[in-house]
Amino acid sequence: MFKVYKLAKAQREILDSLLADDIVGRQTVTYKDGASYGFDSSYIVLIEGSEDIFRNVDSIAKGALEELPKPKEEDIYRKIKDEENSSRDGLGFIFG
User: Fold this and answer.
1) What is the side-by-side order of every strand in the sheet holding 2-8?
2) pLDDT tops 60 at residue 39
3) Which among 80, 78, 71, 82 is positioned nearest to 43, based on CA atoms?
4) Structure confidence at residue 38 as a pLDDT band (50, 70, 90)
5) Would you call 61 exposed, middle or buried from its count of C-beta atoms within 10 A (0-12, 13-18, 19+)?
6) What is the 3-state secondary structure of 43-79?
7) Angstrom distance (rounded) from CA 56 to CA 79
8) Contact status, residue 66 vs residue 7, Cβ threshold 8 Å
9) pLDDT digit string (tens) for 40-77?
10) What is each CA distance from 1 to 10, 24, 38, 51, 62, in whole angstroms?
11) Could you tell me the pLDDT band of residue 86, with boundaries at 50, 70 and 90?
């Protein structure tokens, strides 16, 4: 399961708390500058993990994370995964 959120850059400490959390920090947490996805002055935060961990995410974030609507969420998820795959392919080409 995955969720994509928007987080104001001024609230960076929320992101740091998520990454430092014993449970959430073990999940796949990816964050990007939101400007690349049409969200200036925000981070885009992608969290992948079991459904249970999202209760912890909500508890830590205390409403600071804004979950994106499904169509936008899926679009950004696909873009992030494409970027990751392109990076992996490029490194594979470099290191053979």
Assistant:
1) 28-33, 42-48, 2-8, 66-67
2) yes
3) 80
4) very high
5) buried
6) EEEEEECCCCHHHHHHHHHCCCCEECCHHHHHHHHHH
7) 26
8) yes
9) 999 999 999 999 999 999 999 999 999 999 999 999 99
10) 27, 13, 24, 6, 21
11) confident
The dihedral over CA atoms of 36, 88, 54, 17, expressed in degrees to the nearest 10, equals -70
Rounded CA-CA distance 93/62 in Å is 43
Long-range contacts of 50-53 (CB under 8 A, 24+ apart): 50/1, 51/1, 53/23, 53/24, 53/27
Q: Which tokens is 96 given? A: 């053979």
Is residue 53 within 8 A of residue 18, CB to CB? The reply is no
